[in-house]
TrEMBL record:
Protein name stated in the entry: XRE family transcriptional regulator
Source species of the chain: Chromobacterium indicum
Start and end residues of each HTH cro/C1-type domain: 13-67
Family: Belongs to the short-chain fatty acyl-CoA assimilation regulator (ScfR) family.
Matches recorded under InterPro entries: Cro/C1-type_HTH, IrrE_HExxH, Lambda_DNA-bd_dom_sf, Phage_CI_N, Rad_response_metalloprotease
PROSITE patterns associated with the record: HTH_CROC1
Length: 402
């Protein structure tokens, strides 16, 4: 093993490669070393000299100190939304970004308390154990825990974040990947990543409800590559999403039977659910036969095409707020300065903006915001002094609005 900057964490380097979508050969070319050298860095068989270490951080657009931090435990193997044949590199990139979000949330949790996890608990170990009645009951319990009532859900992202689920929304650049869900051991909560490639609020809401279904129903079921088992779990998450967004009794009472596309189109804006998803829900409730469902889908395709529907642009995608509001609060209360936040988190300002849903160039010219979260009462004076260079105390919890 050769000498060099031995603080380099090989796992950090591998994670950064995945997050940036770079191969070892591409990184070697950018840094100006042989590909075999990068391979040795990733294995821990060799360490970069100081100059190469600095170039490595510059090329990967991370803080040099970040490359030396011990790695957090990884998130659990993610369950993807429509991931059957997604590219391995694309999955690795999204998983790396999910772990970056985990680390951001954990570092910020030094100063704030996040909402407690509050989702239904199920202990299924095999998807074959899960019945339709189980799924309906789980969705009903989820609504009850989140105090959503029996009507349309106004903002599902806000409800999920209030229940302790960390939600991020990011472009996946791969059409077949619409989202993923995983569990974070350090945070003690789940993380959901939603694809932002398609600006369709109806589809995004259903994707989120689908991932919540995976978290509730499949937490204790090992990830599988078996196609039939995977498809069954997808169908169960679909059923949960429909039940969560369209509760059986309330929704059924508003649907005219026999149903048609025009009637469902009216209900679309009220419930925030696509016509296609409503047709599947009606079929699941036994209000549409197999033949009636097939006929309606044929009519839908003939009138509107196979994907888009009228009114798709009338419902903006719901955006996560938790991490954004946390950063805004810390800045407003003087706990961390604008300049110090990306340095504290270790990644580039642009990465922080994307993962925390801050406006572009936020760290160049932040705007004033109101208090939106509760700071922790614990003292982190030594860490604050190191990061901000001043003696500002952590803001007491009593000063903040509940």
């Amino acid at each position: 093993m050769t000498k060099g900057i031995k603080d380099l964490q090989p796992a950090r380097l591998e994670q950064a490669l995945s997050a940036r979508g770079l191969t070892k050969g591409q990184l070697a070319s950018l840094v100006g070393v042989a590909a075999s050298t990068v391979t040795k860095w990733c294995k821990g068989d060799q360490f970069p000299e100081a100059e190469a270490f600095d170039r490595l951080a510059l090329v990967l657009n991370v803080q040099a100190e970040w490359l030396a931090r011990p790695m957090l435990p990884p998130v659990t193997p993610p369950l993807y939304r429509s991931n059957a044949n997604a590219l391995k590199s694309a999955r690795a990139k999204l998983e790396a970004h999910t772990e970056w979000a985990q680390e951001i949330a954990l570092l910020l949790s030094n100063y704030v308390d996040y909402p407690k996890l509050n989702i239904p608990k199920r202990s299924f170990i095999d998807p074959e154990q899960i019945s339709s009645a189980d799924i309906e009951a789980a969705a009903e319990e989820c609504r009850a825990l989140w105090q959503l009532g029996k009507g349309p859900i106004q903002n599902l992202v806000l409800a999920a974040e209030g229940a302790g689920v960390l939600v991020i929304r990011q472009e996946t650049e791969i059409s077949v990947i619409e989202g993923l869900s995983a569990w974070s051991q350090p945070l003690g909560c789940p993380i959901i990543l939603l694809a932002a490639d398609k600006a369709n609020g109806f589809r995004s809401r259903f994707d989120l409800a689908h991932e919540i279904g995976h978290l509730v129903l499949h937490k204790h079921i090992p990830k599988t590559d078996d196609k039939e088992r995977y498809n069954l779990m997808e169908k169960q998450a679909h059923r949960f999403a429909g039940a969560l967004l369209l509760p059986a009794e309330t929704f059924a009472n508003e649907v005219r039977i026999p149903s048609n596309l025009d009637n469902l189109l009216i209900l679309k804006q009220r419930w925030g659910v696509s016509v296609a998803a409503m047709m599947m829900r009606l079929h699941a409730l036994g209000l549409l036969s197999d033949d009636e469902r097939l006929l309606l889908f044929k009519r839908r395709s003939a009138r509107w095409g196979s994907k888009a529907e009228p009114g798709d642009d009338q419902w903006e995608p719901e955006l996560p707020r938790l991490l954004r509001r946390t950063i805004e609060l810390l800045i407003n209360e003087g706990v961390l300065s604008v300049d110090n936040i990306p340095r504290y988190l270790g990644i580039s300002p642009r990465d922080v903006e994307k993962l925390c849903h801050l406006r572009e160039n936020y760290f160049d010219s932040p705007v004033a915001v109101i208090e939106l979260a509760a700071l922790r009462a614990e003292k982190y004076q030594s860490q604050l002094s190191r990061l901000s260079g001043d003696k500002a105390p952590v803001v007491p919890l009593q000063r903040l609005k509940k």
